[in-house]
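B., you asked whether I could sanity-check this one before it goes into the benchmark set. Here's the sequence:
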Amino acid sequence: MTLLEQLKQSIDTMSLGERLVASLQVALLGVTIVFAALILLFLIIKILEHFVSQSSARSERKAAAAAAATAGESPAPATPASEPAETGTSAPETDDALIAVISAAVAASQEETSTHQLVVRDIRRRVDTDPAWGRLGRIQQVHQTPRPR
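And here's what the prediction gave me:
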């Protein structure tokens, strides 16, 4: 007799051993379904994280090309995300352009501040250990249009 056929009967007609076996089968089936759903969610999140990291890398390359174009220079070749940029061996022109772009971005983010009032002393790359959903949230907030008050 299968589990479904056993559970169709009234529980009063089942012996104690049959009840125990049926309850263990139901519990095992429930745990299996929960773990299968969790594994499926994990795989979906990993796939989405892969697509988000590709799109964020693509948008970073576009932003770097746009920043270089506004600074009047040719865009620098894109470096893969797996290779960290070397800060000590780059040309002085690239450092000056990078400092100019960062100064302009900071001045634009602050009200009534020009680049002449800012002094950039040191630029260091920050290691990004945030998960993909955290980076995506920041990107969405940056590109969000301000609400009228």
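One thing to flag: Residues 16-70 form the longest helix (55 residues). Otherwise nothing jumped out at me.
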